[in-house]
Write a structure and sequence with these properties.
357 residues, alpha+beta, 8-stranded mixed beta sheet, 13 strands, disordered N terminus
């Protein structure tokens, strides 16, 4: 099912940093005055009739006044400005109309926003269990009790498209410490929503014989999960996450390829052994590894990772402005010490039968 084209909007040119922060201050003033909560609560971004494609692509997944009051969050001073070398934030509409979310569009990225209307994200719960002293279920109210902050991160897809966007959320480590991990916890496993009646790509993937092993599942080492960069994101661009971005809560691990940042998380398990991941089966073992750090020295078996391409509105994902890929996506000062053996010289592409890092 093809989605209608996005209409051109003269006011949706790429957002300069100064304009974005001006908008943040304006929206926050409205929220403190109760205006935004009232208007959004009334309009709700719910009515499918009368919404333009632009509205559908940008509408938040959650429209509850108690949630909306949390936005926009205070910027973390360490990540409150553009990353070094970044010229501007990615256009909000570009970021909202090209996404990888295989539960809705299997086999590649695309206009996921056109397939998410039936996806229910409220109520929601995240079960945290496994090697912990205090297993717990976190509802939306519990997740938003954590102090929310805004961080501007680079985001890099393994398919070479990239973006620079302001996420809202809180460090995953805060949630993990709340359940008191046992000393036996070595890895953290993430499991996402598995709703075939709401996610049309799941059944389509079966019909097309993609062989995906639903639900989507990923993992991190415990030291990666506790790193301060690792963010549980609840919003983007100063508003709650749109559904195609992984509403109501997703992971963001900015030094790894995007598939290591699962969307719409429902379960987190702390485990002793390295868990299997969604891509670590059959023909994909030599393409997608457990670490999957952004590294220009490690080519994908089917393409180079030496450059990335910024998402731009109206252009294909790999045709935007290019830049040289930085090892760890530019976050080496925060994470390089975790990977003393990370390749720093060009590697040969892996062959079927080999296992990626």
């Amino acid at each position: 099912m093809a989605s209608p084209p996005i209409p051109e909007q003269s006011n949706l040119d790429p957002t300069p940093e100064s304009m974005f922060f001006g908008r943040r201050r304006f929206v926050k003033n409205l929220i403190y005055g109760g205006v935004v909560a009232g208007c959004w609560g009334t309009l709700g971004y719910r009515a499918a009739q009368g919404l333009t494609d632009r509205d559908r692509a940008l509408r938040p997944g959650l429209d509850r006044p108690d949630v909306l009051r949390r936005f926009p969050a205070t910027a973390n001073p360490d990540f409150g400005s553009l990353p070094p070398g970044a010229r501007e934030l990615t256009d909000e509409l570009a970021a909202g109309t090209h996404n990888n979310f295989y539960e809705f569009i299997p086999g590649g990225g695309g206009p996921v926003y056109g397939f998410v209307d039936d996806f229910i994200v409220d109520p929601w719960a995240v079960v945290v269990t496994g090697e912990v002293h205090k297993p717990r279920t976190f509802g939306l109210e519990d997740l938003f009790k954590f102090e929310q902050e805004e961080r501007i991160y680079r985001f890099r897809c393994v398919e070479t498209w990239a973006m620079v966007v302001p996420w809202t959320g809180f460090p995953l480590g805060k949630l993990l410490r709340a359940v008191e991990p046992k000393s036996s916890a070595r890895h953290v496993r993430f499991i996402t929503a598995n709703r075939r009646d709401q996610m049309p790509g799941m059944d389509r993937s079966i019909r097309e014989h993609h062989g995906y092993q639903w639900p989507y599942h990923e993992g991190l080492r415990i030291d990666e999960a506790l790193n301060d960069l690792t963010l549980l994101a609840t919003g983007v661009f100063g508003r709650p996450l749109p559904k195609q971005h992984g509403a109501p809560v997703r992971l963001v691990v900015p030094w790894k390829y995007g598939y290591k940042s699962p969307k719409s998380i429902v379960r987190i398990e702390l485990v002793r052994e390295q868990p299997p991941t969604f891509w670590a089966f059959g023909p994909y073992k030599h393409e997608y590894g457990y670490l999957s750090n952004v590294n220009p020295n490690i080519p994908h078996p089917r393409w180079s990772q030496a450059t990335d391409h910024m998402l731009t509105r109206g252009a294909s994902p790999r045709s935007g402005p290019s830049r040289k890929t930085e090892i760890f996506n530019g976050y080496g000062k925060h994470v390089a010490q975790l990977y003393p053996n990370e390749p720093k010289r060009p590697q040969q592409p892996l062959r079927p039968g080999q296992v990626a890092r």
